[in-house]
Design brief:
The structure holds two protein chains of two kinds. Chain A has twelve helices and no strands. Chain A is mainly α. Chain B contains 20 helices and 23 strands. Chain B is α/β, with parallel strands linked by helices. In chain B, strand 11 (297-312) and strand 12 (317-333) form a beta hairpin. The relative contact order of chain B is 0.10. The N and C termini of chain B lie far apart (67 Å). Classes of the chains: A mainly alpha, B alpha/beta. The A-B interface holds A 1-2, 4-9, 11-13, 15, 187-189, 191-199, 202, 206-207, 210-211, 291-294, 296-298, 300 and B 35, 356-358, 377, 380-381, 384-385, 388-389, 391-393, 396-403, 410-411, 414-415, 435-437, 439-440, 442-444, 446-449, 451-452, 455, 457, 460, 463-464, 482, 485.
Chain lengths: 300, 600
């Protein structure tokens, strides 16, 4: 046995690392993210029990004498909106919509984009030409037009919105994944796999996809805040959730005219969207590091 | 701070004509931040550089030679690495605590640097002319017109062919050697006192390396620039150095004049390092006689051609073909090593890939009697058990996210050859076979050294019990001492298992050590082939002779004949659709030694 063989560094030689979930909880950033996600999920699931008021109720005393929204106070913790509805209650119920949009729409677009990108990138040739031209076509297609067409065909619902957003968003993901797969495929370790006889599925799932994880995670979590707002736009056009059902996006839209006199109406749901995006981003970031063995032992 | 520093403790050597050193490094210590606190990576380096001197920093990877250069240039990656002690005195002025603005004035005008890879150190979207004038205008008070005149002079000075035309060209239009000339021209643009060259020829072919070394030596002589040359190649050291510092793991092992270092090394480490260097012409003829009478043919290649289409024009049609490999034929017997040598672009790696069925080809390849052209993936599986590949860079050829044990097991799983405990037993056996400890199986590639990673790659290649291993520059990325160990392992495996190797390499000394037969490739064609001793000892073709004469000899007493090369570029392998280059006809010189007839 050679000299060098014995000098393998001992640093990361511990056997199995603890479970991924445990590791997520051990990191302060991702633990915070998990708590936030849990809070949003609980709000969404138990909305009808925990809302202090009916979110669609417009009580007589919900507005000031002049008809302006009420600022946050002991009775309405987050104040009331332009119709005198309790903002906190609307925010809690809105979590349902926004969570579905954030998770389902982004998840769908991530899956679709990755599939298209990986297929085109790995197999190249005609499949790449066809798939990537189609991607470019979709990229050039106005999202709103697509949404309106779909809404005309199907009944407007939250799911249609999620579908539309997924169909609009997957293109960026596909482009990123495509370029990365292309360069990965040329790397020696993929060539080594092919030359030892591994089939395409094995190479893709065991050797290509794990390397794409970081881009996929970053891309899909960054998309959350934009998609939540896009949902509001689509709802406004009559495609998605219909008033008075609240969503974080449409709370901002409805109240933006009051921005100077009642800033909390825009500020609070804005912060809620930000926190949700942040939470997924923190968890995604940590997940990426935990799953990457080359980073083991390097985080602070 | 005064420029007058008593020089009594500085090591003054005979190399110095003038007693005042240009650059003095005293007790330089650098630490990098790690999770467990500062780690000393450079430990008390001291040397002085005289005007007109070539000082070589030699050592293996991780010895801290590049770090020393970075420190002098003020390019340490702060805050990850910092100088914790010592001084860097340039003409008496300490550079350690210089601000970035101050440093910027110094770079290019007083100290300049050349990097290893000329392609990445040039800006791909700027013309050569723009890049040279940019430096001139930034540091000197001259007009644009004067600068472009100066740029032309510089290109002439670095002996660039048709310099006027080059000014308007982009880096990708030039060959590697020409690019490195441009980099040198940029470095010398402001006539620096000190030129630091960090492995300036490592990425280049030997013949180009010889030219660049010549050039650096000539320019240095003429302008009186002091040069710090960083290299791992003792041949380069012998060729160019006045004085040598041997470094190891951040420590200065030895500082001596070059002749003394080679004739009478003062430390054990230097002796070992020099002993590990493969030397051309050192293999005794009796040793490599290694008779292989009547063994079975493992690989037969007939008229192998590989072409890559170049598309262009309005309709994106194929306009030209790159004839990477043109009608190459050879065969390899069981237990035999055939070396393919040649410079970059000669098609040697392409042949390796064709053998692995990694790209489409014309002609016939028979592995163990089975033709591989046009086989389906399923039928290829059977062929692939017989032929495996080891790549140049072991780190790049292992999946960084997977434990190496799993990676060695993969071919066995893919081919359904073992499972369960049989699989883990087999993998353990393979690890033992290549000299790795069993606990290495659960580690990831980044936790190993280069040599160990290459052992993992060898274990993976061995998993399927192949008849032939294609070794594509498999030791070029390794330090010489490790290189020797890996070569020894390959030889041992050949003896025990009767493996055949297709050994692709640009390093003539290594080729001489390992190969039974050699084929020399030039522009995609074989120009000379035969037994290793005949081809390397008695080369018939002019190209082989040139290739061999360009190899730097690790012996300062040896004076290489000045290297002359025609100014024209290498023969282009691009040909219009429907045309093919003239086929090289081989003539026999006896004992199976063939070479191409030369034109004219």
């Amino acid at each position: 046995m050679s000299r060098e063989a014995l000098s393998v560094q001992e640093a990361a030689s511990e056997s199995r690392s603890p479970g991924v979930f445990r590791q997520l909880l051990e990191r302060p950033g991702s633990a915070f993210g998990l708590v936030l996600i849990a809070a949003i999920v609980i709000c969404a699931l138990t909305a009808s029990y925990i809302t202090p008021y009916d979110p669609n109720d417009q009580p007589f005393d919900g507005l000031t004498i002049e008809g302006a929204p009420i600022a946050p106070n002991a009775e309405h913790w987050m104040g009331t909106d332009l119709l005198g509805r309790d903002l906190l209650s609307r925010l809690i119920v809105g979590a349902q919509t926004s969570l579905i949009i954030g998770v389902v729409a982004n998840g769908l677009s991530a899956i679709l984009g990755t599939l298209v990108g990986v297929t085109a990138g790995y197999f190249g040739g005609l499949s790449a030409v066809v798939l990537m031209r189609f991607t470019d076509l979709m990229m050039a297609f106005p999202a709103l037009l697509l949404a309106i067409v779909l809404a005309a065909i199907f009944e407007p619902s939250l799911w249609i919105v999620a579908m539309v957003i997924a169909m609009v968003n997957w293109v960026q993901m596909a482009r990123v994944v495509y370029t990365e797969t292309r360069s990965l495929t040329e790397r020696d370790f993929i060539q080594a796999q092919i030359s030892m006889g591994s089939g395409p599925l094995r190479v893709l799932f065991r050797h290509v996809l794990p390397h794409l994880l970081s881009s996929i995670v970053v891309f899909s979590t960054l998309g959350i805040s934009t998609t939540v707002l896009l949902e509001a736009t689509l709802s406004y056009l009559g495609v998605g959730v219909q008033p008075p059902t609240p969503s974080w996006g449409n709370i901002i839209f409805e109240n933006q005219t009051y921005f100077s006199s009642a800033p909390w109406l825009v500020f609070i749901p804005g912060v809620a969207i930000l926190l949700m995006a942040l939470a997924f981003n923190l968890v995604g970031d940590a997940l990426r590091d935990i799953l990457d063995p080359t980073l083991k032992g390097r985080h602070g | 701070m005064s420029a007058m520093i008593p020089d009594n403790e500085a090591d003054m050597t005979d190399a110095a004509k003038s007693p005042v050193p240009l650059l003095e490094v005293r007790d330089l210590t650098i630490q990098v931040a790690t999770a467990s606190g500062g780690k000393t990576v450079l430990d008390g380096i001291s040397f002085s550089l005289m005007p007109n001197e070539v000082l070589c920093l030699a050592g293996e990877s991780g010895s801290g030679k590049s770090l020393t250069a970075m420190a002098i240039m003020g390019l340490l990656p702060k805050p990850a690495a910092r100088i914790t002690a010592g001084q860097i005195l340039l003409a008496g002025r300490d550079l350690v605590d210089l601000s970035e603005t101050e440093y910027r004035k110094l770079r290019a005008t007083r100290v300049a640097m050349i990097f290893q890879e000329p392609m990445t150190s040039l800006n791909p979207v700027m013309t050569i002319g723009e890049q040279i004038t940019e430096v001139l205008v930034a540091h000197q008070d001259i007009s644009a017109a004067e600068a472009s005149k100066a740029a032309l002079e510089l290109l002439t000075e670095v002996r660039m062919s048709s310099p006027e035309r080059r000014l308007k060209q982009y880096p990708h239009e030039l060959s590697g050697g020409m690019r490195q000339r441009v980099v040198i021209a940029i470095a010398l643009a402001c006539q620096p006192d000190v030129l630091i060259a960090d492995e300036p020829t490592t990425a280049l072919d030997v013949t180009v390396q010889a030219e660049i070394l010549d050039l650096i030596a000539k320019l240095q002589e003429r302008a009186g620039t002091a040069v710090i040359m960083i290299t791992h190649d003792m041949g380069v050291v012998a060729e160019i150095a006045d004085r040598v510092i041997v470094m190891r793991a951040g420590k200065q092992m030895e500082t001596s004049p070059v002749r003394q270092l080679f004739a009478n090394p003062s430390t054990q480490y230097t002796r070992e390092l020099l002993a590990a260097v493969p030397r051309l012409g050192s293999v005794a003829a009796s040793l490599e006689a290694h008779e292989l009478a009547n063994t079975a043919t493992v690989v037969e290649v007939n008229d192998l051609s590989v072409r890559f289409p170049v598309r262009g024009g309005l309709l994106n049609r194929v306009q030209q073909n790159v004839h990477a490999v043109e009608k190459v034929s050879f065969s390899i017997n069981a237990g035999e090593t055939l070396a393919l040598v040649g410079e970059s672009g000669s098609g040697k790696s392409t042949i390796g890939k064709a053998l692995m069925s990694l790209l489409p080809f014309d002609g016939e390849i028979r592995i163990n009697g089975r033709a591989t052209r046009g086989l389906s993936r399923r039928s290829l599986q059977v062929v692939r058990r017989d032929v495996q590949m080891i790549f140049q860079d072991p780190y790049a050829s292992l999946d960084p996210r997977m434990m190496v044990g799993d990676q060695v097991a993969e071919p066995l799983i893919v081919h359904g050859l073992a499972s369960g405990t049989e699989l883990s037993d087999r993998v353990a056996w393979l690890f033992k076979r290549v000299g790795l400890p069993l606990d290495a199986m659960r580690r990831h590639p980044h936790e190993f050294s280069g040599g160990q990673r290459q052992r993992v790659c060898i274990a993976r290649a061995l998993a399927l019990n192949p008849k032939l291993i294609v070794a594509d520059e498999c030791v070029s990325a390794l330090d010489v001492s490790v290189q020797a160990q890996v070569l020894e392992l390959l030889r041992e495996l050949q003896e025990d298992e009767g493996l055949s190797y297709l050994f692709i390499s640009h390093d003539m000394a290594v080729v001489e050590q390992v190969s039974d037969r050699v084929a020399v490739l030039y522009a995609g064609q074989v120009v000379e082939t035969g037994p290793a001793s005949a081809v390397l000892g008695n080369p018939r073709h002019a190209y082989t002779q040139r290739l061999l004469s360009a190899v730097p000899i690790p012996d300062p007493e040896h004076q290489r004949v000045p290297f002359v090369r025609s100014t024209e570029d290498i023969v282009s392998v691009m040909h219009a659709v429907g045309t093919a280059p003239e086929q090289q006809l081989l003539q026999n010189h006896g004992r199976n030694h063939w070479s191409a007839r030369e034109a004219g």
